[in-house]
């Protein structure tokens, strides 16, 4: 069946939910893989048994990643084999559709690109004034190509009802929902620790700074901040002098599994998250989640059963209250409900959901 399916994914730079999803497609459909670039902090795609095409498309010039990816996928590709099904995952990957007009083109949409649509102003304001015209030019160049590619897809799959609505709003397209996969056997409860764990990428939209500010006001509560990202240095400065807050940096898989399996609970409060695999993985390990009641998270975490949902203004104060109320006994009592909830998003359900759209 490998000859029949090719998955096209933007790049492997982190160990994110999108990357885990693509690895699952490659291993369990199975599917060959085409990607524009890899990095040392992501999964080792060379361990896949299927065929891997790596375009090595990113140069050394910072700030033009989307342009480089788009150009790479539009150029002639080193794919000699005929594939009946092409699955696209990512922002720029759909642009490769122009090479596969005879195939069954299936777009798994994590979200319409936020720098083009709903978060356009956020990204513009985050740049120095002199750089904003470049982003505006990129959007004018990229948007029509992206929308043309999406229009040529036989099927669009959304990773949540939240993204299904976003696709309808921004692209005026109907999408089917297939939730991303979680390897529920991979994440396991190990012990009831005394620390809370943040696994979110160090990015402004993940609001790790709010978590740190809350724990600065909770000196008797322990916080472990894992992963990394563009805000790492800024976040470390914010937490300086507070011994109850510890940073680990990027970790390998066994270390991450140990941290998750031994924590008291996880904290994940991003702004308007697309889906959010971190809460599902936390629940798979039997750990409740203190999470923002926004976006796709509302479809995964059940308030007061598998975690605590917080929203609205005064997020820091609400987080402080939630940490104080989620005692070790209360967290332990949620374990079975967490593990059961995670099974709704297991790999088998995901694979069966994808298969129904393949030829």
Task: Describe this structure in a few short sentences.
With 359 residues, the chain is of the alpha/beta class.
Explain the overall architecture.
There is one protein chain. The chain is of the alpha/beta class. It folds into 2 domains: 2-177, Rossmann fold, CATH 3.40.50; 195-344, 3-Layer(aba) Sandwich (Rossmann fold). It is 36% helix and 15% strand. It has 13 helices and 13 strands. It has a 7-stranded parallel beta sheet with strand order 3-2-1-4-5-6-7. It has a 6-stranded parallel beta sheet with strand order 10-9-8-11-12-13, sandwiched between helices. Strand 9 (222-226), helix 7 and strand 10 form a beta-alpha-beta unit. The radius of gyration is 20 Å and the shape is globular. The mean pLDDT is 94.
Topology:
Blueprint: E1 5-9, H1 17-28, E2 32-35, E3 52-54, H2 65-74, E4 85-89, E5 104-109, H3 120-125, H4 132-151, E6 155-158, H5 161-171, E7 176-177, E8 195-198, H6 208-216, E9 222-226, H7 232-239, E10 245-249, H8 253-262, E11 265-268, H9 277-284, E12 289-292, E13 307-310, H10 315-325, H11 328-333, H12 335-342, H13 347-355
Parallel strand pairs: 1-2, 1-4, 2-3, 4-5, 5-6, 6-7, 8-9, 8-11, 9-10, 11-12, 12-13
Helix pairs in contact: 6-10, 9-12
CATH first level of the largest domain: Alpha Beta
- Overall mean pLDDT: 94
Biggest pleated sheet: 7 strands, parallel
CATH architectural grouping of the largest domain: 3-Layer(aba) Sandwich
What are the segments in which pLDDT stays under 50 over at least 5 consecutive residues? none
Distance between the termini: 11 Å
Give the structural class. Answer: alpha/beta
How would you write the strand order of the largest sheet? 3-2-1-4-5-6-7
Write down how many β-strands occur, each being a DSSP E stretch of 2 or more residues. 13
Instruction: Work out the strand percent.
Output: 15-25%
User: Radius of gyration in whole Å, from Cα?
Assistant: 20 Å
**Element pattern in H and E:** EHEEHEEHHEHEEHEHEHEHEEHHHH
Put simply, the count of helices is 13
Q: Note the overall shape.
A: globular
- Give the helix proportion (percent range): 25-40%
CATH topology name of the largest domain, in short, is Rossmann fold
State the domain count: 2
């Amino acid at each position: 069946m490998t000859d029949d399916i090719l998955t096209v994914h933007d790049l492997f730079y982190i160990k994110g939910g999108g990357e885990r999803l693509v690895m699952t497609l490659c291993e369990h459909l199975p599917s060959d893989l085409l990607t524009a670039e890899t990095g040392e902090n992501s999964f080792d795609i060379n361990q896949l048994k299927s065929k891997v095409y790596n375009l090595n498309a990113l140069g050394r010039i910072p700030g033009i990643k989307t342009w480089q990816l788009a150009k790479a996928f539009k150029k002639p590709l080193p794919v000699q084999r005929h594939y009946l099904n092409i699955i696209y995952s990512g922002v720029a990957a759909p642009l490769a559709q122009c090479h596969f007009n005879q195939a069954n083109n299936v777009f798994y949409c994590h979200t319409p690109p936020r720098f083009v649509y709903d978060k356009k102003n956020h990204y513009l304001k985050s740049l120095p004034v002199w750089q904003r015209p470049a982003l505006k030019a990129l959007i004018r160049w990229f948007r029509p190509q992206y929308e043309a590619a999406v229009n040529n897809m036989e099927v669009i799959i959304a990773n949540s009802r939240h993204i299904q609505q976003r696709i309808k709003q921004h692209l005026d397209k109907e999408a089917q929902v297939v939730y991303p996969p979680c390897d529920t056997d991979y994440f396991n409860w190990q012990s009831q620790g005394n620390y809370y764990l943040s696994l979110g990428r160090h990015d402004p939209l993940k609001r790790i700074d709010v978590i740190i500010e809350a724990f600065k006001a909770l000196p008797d509560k322990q916080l472990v901040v894992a992963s990394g990202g563009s805000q790492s240095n800024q976040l470390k400065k914010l937490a300086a002098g507070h011994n109850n807050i510890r940073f680990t940096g990027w970790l390998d898989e066994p270390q991450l599994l140990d941290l998750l399996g031994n924590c008291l609970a996880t904290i994940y409060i991003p702004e308007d998250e697309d889906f959010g695999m971190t809460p599902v993985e936390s629940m798979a390990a039997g750990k409740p989640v203190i999470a923002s009641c926004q976006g796709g998270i509302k479809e995964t975490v059940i308030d007061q059963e598998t975690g605590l949902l917080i929203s609205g203004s005064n997020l820091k104060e609400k987080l402080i209250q939630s940490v104080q109320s989620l005692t070790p006994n209360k967290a332990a009592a949620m374990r079975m409900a967490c593990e059961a909830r995670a099974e709704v998003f297991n790999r088998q359900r995901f694979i069966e959901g994808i298969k129904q759209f393949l030829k």
